[in-house]
Give the backbone structure.
Amino acid sequence: NDKSIQSASEETEPGSKSTLAKQAHSVYREVSRVARYQFWENTALGLSLFSLIFTTLGRSLPLILEKYANRRFGLTWAEVGLLGSVKSFVALGTIAIVLPLIDVLLRKRMRLSLVSKDMWLVRGSILIMLLGSVGISLSTSKVSFFASLSVFVLRSGYEFAIRSLLAQIAGYTVATVYT
């Protein structure tokens, strides 16, 4: 009888093995439920989340482009520094002028829903990114490289559009998705 009392008290102690196992199992079930919803039950959400991997990997791209420009076109590091200014100027123009104009065009003139509008912005950004990448790789001069880089940087609206799309697709689970 003392052994059953002792085992019952061990199960209810905060640091006992069975309590930790129950908590670990509970966390596993919750993580499984969230993953199942985000990646299998809501495929649009899962694919959108998956695409963010490439956005994260793309953060190292400026360093690669700078080294590429230095080696391929013989740009000095001062000229390579100019790339940062060009990219920032184009990105600012895209975010401050181009995206709001496209937003008005798609929502007001074409009467698209928010999800459709963001989906078109994402698609357009990916297409522009692809065209800019091809242009950069085919560039034979500094001028064509700078022009292609400017086109490539127009993709800066992608991250904002995909995050907006994620928020709409996620619905009531948006906090979990952003976490």
